[in-house]
TrEMBL record:
Species assigned in the record: Duganella aquatilis
Protein name: Methyltransferase domain-containing protein
InterPro entries in alphabetical order: SAM-dependent_MTases_sf
Domain of life: Bacteria
Amino acid sequence: MALDFGRGLTAQLLAGANPMGQFYAADFNPALALAREAQLPNLTRLENSFEDLAPGQVTLPQFDFITLHGIYSWATAENRRWAKPTAARTPTTSCSTR
């Protein structure tokens, strides 16, 4: 799961390079998303906020990895608060906020 996928380049590259894997990418600003144009059957694009995803309002599988980069440094305190419980959807979570 990629949180805040923006234009979707990383999610598309990972899904395209790993056709046997299942990839999910979420962004609350769909206007930025390029991934909708990708025709990758193993990439699911979600238009949800961290708040939507954290409490489980969206049915999602267990993830091996959840990534976010960049957004944590400029997101509001409220969005950062919701990002951590979203990351808790992984079996063993290591949440670095560097």
